[in-house]
Design goal:
Blueprint lengths: L1 E7 L7 H16 L2 E6 L3 H6 L2 E4 L35 H11 L4 E6 L1 H12 L4 E5 L15 H22 L2 E6 L6 H9 L4 E3 L7 H13 L5 E6 L5 H4 L3 H9 L6 H13 L3 E4 L12 H19 L5 E6 L2 E6 H4 L11 H8 L7
Parallel strand pairs: 1-2, 1-4, 4-5, 5-10, 6-8, 6-9, 7-8
Antiparallel strand pairs: 2-3, 10-11
Helix pairs in contact: 1-11, 5-6, 7-10
Bound molecules: 6-O-phosphono-beta-D-fructofuranose.
The site of 6-O-phosphono-beta-D-fructofuranose has 10 residues, from loops.
């Protein structure tokens, strides 16, 4: 009989429950008798020993339910080795909870920071298997993370809804989407929603080029322009600043987000009315789309196979449409960025979409 601990860590997404269900169904199928322990609110539950004993019943009926039945929280990796306010050594505490429950494996569903912590625990001697969660699709080593397609669906829907009203009023619309460091959601939703301009962190923009793109549309007799802008979009000028200088600049920015800042600049330069829409956390909400349900189930089954084979220290990944796994130490700490040379970017440009570069 195996004893499995499980936690969901970092920002939530639509497909966490579907993935846990996949792991549990797979393990029960492969192992028969399995005991599950769910840690509450991510690594916090593992540190402070907050867990619940779960049975297969707890994972029934959750394929379509967004959020996470375990709860989640952000426990920054850089603070993992820093004792908490009561002097608790978090790493030792996690190891001792794992040992106390006599676990055979800890299953971690998480994004970049959570994978770093999973790798650290693996290096500390725990058996760990992880799964690639994030709407940002920015985990190195996997072509696809679960949650991404559901977020793109919602972001695209936001752009679709803006389209009709933008056309009626002849306005410029900015739809600001999630993605501080990477622009995958904005890039995909921008193309899917027919945005005219896409601005992402990896391709710094020149404001004059953005304005030219808007004016070009007006000259072509198109009254409205839609910009899909990632929350981390950055101008060429600001991209030259050091991290510290940029942080200071942001702290003193007159506008609350890049979307509002651009809106003011575009209004001034073109005289056109500009409106900003920010779908925000709705992008992480609701039910997973069928594509996510499929990959969550497949990734979950693959994690169950790894555990069944006692092949630990791995993150399950997708390459193309194939599921496999890579050592945690290979992926931990690396992000998968959009490259200006990616085919998808070049094709978007061929379609006439401006990246403001
Ligand atoms: O990492 C997922 C994500 O949704 C990012 O796209 C976004 O920038 C961030 O989390 C928001 O974090 P929080 O939920 O802590 O505000």
């Amino acid at each position: 009989m195996k004893r499995i601990g499980m936690l969901t860590s970092g920002g939530d997404c639509q497909s966490l429950n579907a993935t846990m269900r996949g792991v549990v169904k797979g393990l029960i199928h492969l192992e028969g008798n399995v005991e599950f322990y769910g840690f509450e609110d991510g690594y916090k539950g593992l540190i402070y020993g907050n867990y619940k004993r779960l049975t297969s019943k707890d994972f029934s009926g959750i394929l379509t339910r967004g959020g996470t039945i375990l709860g989640t929280s952000r426990q920054p990796f850089k603070l993992m080795r820093v004792p908490d306010e009561n002097g608790v050594d978090k790493v030792e505490a996690m190891k001792s909870t794992y040992k106390y429950l006599d676990l055979d494996c800890l299953v971690v569903l998480g994004g970049n920071g959570s994978q770093k912590s999973a790798n650290m625990l693996s290096e500390e001697g725990l058996n760990v298997v992880s799964l690639p969660k994030t709407i940002d699709n920015d985990l190195w080593g996997t072509d696809m993370t679960f949650g991404f397609q559901s977020a793109v669906d919602i972001a695209t829907n936001a752009i679709d809804c803006i389209h009709t009203t933008a056309a009626s009023h002849d306005r410029v619309f900015i739809v600001e989407l999630m993605g501080h460091k990477v622009g995958w959601v904005t890039l995909h939703a921008g193309i899917a929603g027919g945005a005219d301009v896409i601005l992402i962190p990896e391709i710094p923009y020149n404001l004059n080029h953005v304005i030219e793109a808007i004016k070009r549309r007006s000259e072509q007799g198109k009254g409205f322009t839609i910009l899909a802008v990632a929350e981390g979009a950055i101008s060429k000028e600001d991209a030259k600043l050091s991290k510290k200088q940029y942080k200071e600049k942001l702290a003193n920015r007159q506008h609350s987000t890049v979307g509002y800042e651009l809106a003011a600049q575009i209004e001034e330069a073109t005289g056109q009315e500009v409106r900003v829409t920010i779908p925000g956390h709705t992008q992480r909400g609701g039910s997973p789309v069928p594509f996510d349900r499929v990959i969550s189930s497949r990734l979950g089954a693959a994690a169950a196979e790894l555990i069944h084979n006692e092949d630990y220290g791995k993150m399950v990944i997708m390459k193309g449409y194939e599921v496999s796994s890579i050592p945690l130490k290979e992926t931990a700490g690396k992000l998968k960025y959009v490259s200006p040379d990616d085919q998808i970017v070049k094709q978007a440009k061929t379609l006439g979409i401006s990246f403001g570069d």
